[in-house]
């Protein structure tokens, strides 16, 4: 891939080999995950769990605990992204992921917004990664691939649960659809760790081993591997790829809830903190496979 006008990779300025970093999206955490119930304890727990950064973390606490930090925002129109970039840079973020537009815009409107995002990203030398997400301009497989054809310098935050469930990707041939969206995989530089099945966008994955009854886990492992392989094939020394579990709560209808058999109270399907660690394990196995496929030495 040789895009002259492209969003940059995250890079620490070192000569280190390209690497995978696991950050935690703070929507995946709560004070119940803190050993002492304090906010400071929560950040200590994030660090102790093996995460090296956060998304949407408190800057002071990230700095105190030696955690990286990235941002998230929405951009709906030309001119909005510059303020987002400046705000993210002021907060010390390493990048910002974006929900862009609402999915109702025609291609001409979308192109203007994307050109503005690309231009400002390059101007400020700051990576902004457009998320594959429902209710945005990237909610559709076909339209997103065509967007890449028109703007090859675009880079993505891959949140493939939206496509896997929303498009029911297994219906009509999952392999065919993965091959079709390969240009997107090639441009993923950040990833939200969430796994859905053909009917629900966020589900428990057990121990992450996949197999019978959990075939969807294997599909996500392949999508993650393809994305990481795309990154590695063009990565430079000091570049890093962020995998950020983002298992969101029932208050916004992501985590499924079921009645407790004794109390009748609604309980979440899984412990999202523990499931995020399983997602990290899957991501690391995908990274190992991506290293083999790309021929890059760790």
Record keyword descriptors for this entry:
single chain; 298 residues; alpha/beta; TIM Barrel; 8-stranded parallel beta barrel; two-stranded antiparallel ribbon; 17% strand; globular
Biggest sheet layout: 8 strands, parallel, barrel
**CATH domain topology:** TIM Barrel
* End-to-end CA span: 21 Å
- What is the number of beta strands? 11
CATH class: Alpha Beta
Shape: globular
Order of helices and strands: EEHEHEHEHEHEHHHEHEEEH
On the 0-100 scale, what is the average pLDDT? 95
Task: Give the uncertain stretches in residue-range form.
Answer: none
Number of helices: 10
Give the count of structural domains: 1
Structural class: alpha/beta
* Fraction of residues in helix: 25-40%
Please, could you describe this protein's structure?
By secondary structure, this protein is an alpha/beta fold. It has a single domain (10-293), classed as Divalent-metal-dependent TIM barrel enzymes (TIM Barrel, Alpha-Beta Barrel), CATH 3.20.20. It is built from ten helices and eleven strands. The strands form two sheets. An eight-stranded parallel beta barrel has the order 2-3-4-5-6-7-8-9, surrounded by four helices. The chain has a two-stranded antiparallel sheet with strand order 10-11. β4, α3 (81-90) and β5 (96-100) form a beta-alpha-beta unit. α9 crosses α10. The protein is globular. The mean pLDDT is 95.
């Amino acid at each position: 891939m040789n895009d002259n006008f492209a969003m940059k990779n995250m890079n620490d300025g070192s000569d280190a080999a390209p690497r995978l970093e696991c950050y935690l999206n703070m929507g995946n955490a709560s004070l119940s995950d803190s050993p002492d119930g304090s906010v400071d304890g929560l950040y200590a727990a994030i660090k102790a769990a093996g995460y090296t950064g956060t998304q949407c973390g408190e800057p002071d606490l990230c700095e105190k605990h030696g955690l990286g930090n990235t941002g998230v925002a929405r951009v709906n129109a030309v001119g909005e992204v510059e303020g987002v970039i400046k705000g993210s840079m002021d907060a010390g973020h390493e990048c910002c992921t974006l929900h862009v537009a609402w999915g109702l815009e025609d291609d001409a409107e979308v192109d203007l917004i994307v050109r503005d995002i690309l231009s400002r990203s390059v101007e400020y030398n700051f990576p902004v990664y457009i998320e594959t997400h429902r209710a945005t301009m990237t909610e559709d497989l076909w339209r997103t691939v065509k967007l890449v054809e028109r703007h090859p310098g675009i880079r993505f935050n891959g949140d493939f649960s939206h496509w896997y469930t929303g498009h029911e990707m297994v219906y009509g041939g999952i392999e065919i659809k993965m091959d079709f969206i390969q240009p997107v995989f090639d441009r993923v530089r950040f990833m939200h760790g969430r796994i859905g099945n053909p009917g629900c966008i966020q589900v428990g994955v057990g121990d992450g081993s996949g197999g019978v009854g959990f075939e969807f886990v294997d599909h996500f492992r392949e999508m993650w591997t393809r994305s990481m392989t795309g990154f590695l094939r063009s990565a430079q020394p000091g570049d890093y790829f962020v995998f950020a579990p983002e298992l969101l709560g029932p208050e916004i209808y992501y985590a499924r809830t079921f009645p407790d058999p004794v109390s009748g109270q609604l309980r979440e399907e899984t412990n999202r903190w523990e499931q995020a660690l399983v997602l990290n394990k899957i991501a690391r196995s995908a990274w190992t496979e991506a290293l083999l496929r790309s021929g890059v030495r760790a």
